[in-house]
Specification:
The complex is a heterodimer of chains A (about 190) and B (about 400). Chain A is an alpha+beta fold and about 190 residues long. Helices cover about 35% and strands about 15% of the residues of chain A. Chain A has helices at about 15-25, 65, 75-90, 105-115, 120-140, 165-175, and strands at about 5, 30, 40-45, 50-55, 105, 140-145, 150-155. Chain B is mainly alpha-helical and about 400 residues long. Chain B folds into 3 domains: about 1-120, Arc Repressor Mutant, subunit A, CATH 1.10.10; about 145-250, no CATH class; about 325-400, Arc Repressor Mutant, subunit A.
């Protein structure tokens, strides 16, 4: 995902600059009242809007695989995706709806679900999962609020195409249930 | 080739008055192809082509040579005045001369030296003096190894080479201090200098080994070689400095770019892509990839096939654990109940109920008979009783009896 985009320094259309900035910054967040630069997709939750890359013809970076091009290297991708699945199990409470914006869930619940999915030292699994939660939050896949200890789906899940979600919904139903305590409360 | 190698450096000594005229003759023939008239060098490359066409025709003509009309026919592509001019100059310089030096001679022949000179000129035009230098060095190397070579000849060769190197480094220095455009134009002259240096040093070593008395000449040669090396390095450095400001990657050989990529600092490398915008890299998690990751991941409980279950409710564990004691006690109880205190009882008297019950009892009695620890046995006779109304319709008479323990 490193497509070059030439942008000289002076006298450039501000919209082009805004778009370039969006692409460089990853998933920046702007106020809902601000205009969305051209050529980007937006995922908003009412107050804020996250600017996302948009691809032509509904393609996603998964297309790289068909062209036998290496995607962005990712350490322990399986673990990251399992943690993402555990977080979605907790946050995506109404699986018939779209995953975005979802509902906040306690990080402790996510760790609990992840512990139920994995084998071995539970303490170690929690620590791994915490690290993965942070990494997923850094790249816009989750929104992590460390102060209140809650997590919500990140704006990037809004890029998932609806037809591709069936198997994920199926999977989430099979995952262990989150503990039946407070809704999104911290402990 | 020998005129080329001796004359190319332009260093042949002219102090010998006697041979001077002969040497001048060779020079005139060699450069006749380049001469516009007897006093100056051509200013149009087409004039060289006329000379070459003529010489080629002479080579094909053989010993008879060519007549003036034949020469004109060969050069029919060129205007008449150009042809006349060339022929006059070539004749004047001796490149084309009469077969017999007589008046009104109609047939002409060409000079061998002029052809060789023209070959040399063409080569110089094609790839410059550098490849000629390679040839010279190789020739000198051969000459030095030649046992007939004298010290004087070696001194002459070394002097010539030293002079060539000196002039070459002067030219390079001029280039280095001149405009960068000129330097770029002449850049091919700078490539492959390492090889020339190595060859020159090898030649220098060979001369010095064979004629130690030539150490003075060799010192000059060595100094000239080093001066040339320095000059070419400086010119190359200036060129590679300025090449960084251009996008024309062919200005430098690929090796230089490769070295740059390996040794440059991060800032230098980053400067190459200034003005480009790259998307922020982020991993992409396709829903199907998430599903695959969960399903391939380690599980809390490894999946095992469930054992087969009966369709009826399970009554739980049976008391009969199959241990020997319980079976023996049961058989003893059945046997005692059958004997009713007697020592022996007829089998057909026992099997009075329906066959389903009788056969179970018969099986128990057989087991008691076969059990080695139980003091009972079944004794069968050889007869066979038919009982049409009975439950077993035939019975072999026999006795179930207690044996002595």
């Amino acid at each position: 995902m490193t497509g070059g985009d030439g942008a000289a320094s002076g006298g450039v259309d501000p919209r082009v600059l805004a778009r370039a900035r969006v692409r460089v910054l990853g998933v920046p967040v702007i106020d809902a009242s601000e205009p969305v630069p051209e050529g980007t997709a937006a995922a908003g939750d009412g107050e804020r809007v996250w600017l996302l890359p948009s691809w032509p013809d509904g393609a996603t970076p998964a297309l790289l695989e068909e062209y036998e091009t290496a995607p962005m290297p990712l350490d322990r991708s399986g673990q990251a995706r399992r943690v993402l699945a555990a977080a979605l199990r907790c946050c995506w409470t109404r699986p018939d709806d779209a995953p975005w914006p979802g509902a906040p869930a306690a990080v402790a619940d996510v760790l609990e679900v992840y512990g139920g999915m994995s084998r071995g030292d539970a303490d170690l699994a929690r620590r791994w999962a915490t690290g993965e939660l942070r990494r997923l939050a850094d790249t816009g896949w989750l929104l992590l609020d460390e102060e209140s200890g809650t997590v919500r789906p990140g704006p990037r899940v809004a890029l998932w195409a609806e037809p591709s979600l069936a198997s994920l919904r199926d999977l989430l139903r099979r995952l262990p249930e989150p503990p039946q305590r407070a809704e999104g409360g911290d402990e | 080739m020998s005129p080329t190698s001796e004359n190319a450096p332009g260093a042949a000594s002219l102090d010998d008055v006697l041979v001077g005229e002969a040497v001048l003759g060779v020079y005139r023939q060699m450069f006749a192809a380049l001469a516009r008239d007897s006093g100056a060098v051509v200013d149009d490359p087409e004039l060289v082509d006329v000379a070459e066409t003529l010489l080629a025709a002479f080579a094909d003509a053989g010993e008879d040579g060519l007549s003036r009309e034949q020469m004109r026919y060969v050069c029919r592509r060129y205007p008449a005045d150009v042809f006349e001019n060339r022929l006059r100059v070539l004749k004047g310089l001796g490149a084309v001369r009469e077969v017999f030096p007589k008046p009104n001679q109609l047939r002409y022949r060409a000079s061998f030296t002029s052809v060789v000179g023209l070959m040399f000129v063409r080569r110089m035009m094609l790839d410059g003096g550098q490849s000629e230098m390679h040839r010279l060095l190789a020739l000198e190397q051969l000459n030095v190894a030649d046992p007939r070579m004298t010290a004087e000849q070696a001194r002459g060769g070394a002097d010539g080479l030293a002079r060539a190197f000196r002039l070459w480094s002067v030219e390079l220095l001029t280039l280095t201090n001149g405009t960068i455009e000129e330097l770029r134009e002449q850049a091919p002259k700078l490539w492959g200098t390492e090889e020339i240096l190595i060859r020159a040093e090898r030649l220098h070593g060979a001369i010095l080994r064979r004629w130690p008395e030539l150490d003075r000449t060799c010192t000059d040669l060595r100094a000239a070689i080093y001066a040339y090396g320095d000059a070419s390095r400086r010119a190359a450095a200036r060129l590679s400095d300025s090449a960084g400001t251009t996008r024309n990657l062919t200005l430098l050989p690929p090796e230089t770019w490769r070295t740059f990529a390996r040794t440059a600092s991060r800032e230098d490398l980053a400067a190459v892509l200034e003005g480009f915008v790259f998307d922020a890299a982020a991993p992409w998690h396709e829903p199907s990839a998430v599903v695959a990751a969960v399903e391939d991941g380690p599980r809390a409980t490894p999946p095992r096939p469930a054992p087969p279950r009966p369709s009826v409710p399970d009554p739980g564990l049976s008391d009969d654990t199959g241990s020997d004691g319980a079976a023996v006690e049961r058989l003893r109880a059945v046997a005692e109940q059958t004997l009713r205190g007697n020592d022996r009882v007829a089998v057909e008297d026992v099997l009075v109920e329906d066959w389903a019950a009788s056969r179970r009892l018969l099986a128990d009695l057989s087991s008691a008979h076969l059990h080695p620890e139980l003091p009972y046995r079944l004794v069968w006779s050889d007869a066979l009783d038919v009982r049409p109304g009975g439950s077993p319709t035939w019975v072999t008479p026999g006795w179930f009896e207690r044996t002595a323990p």
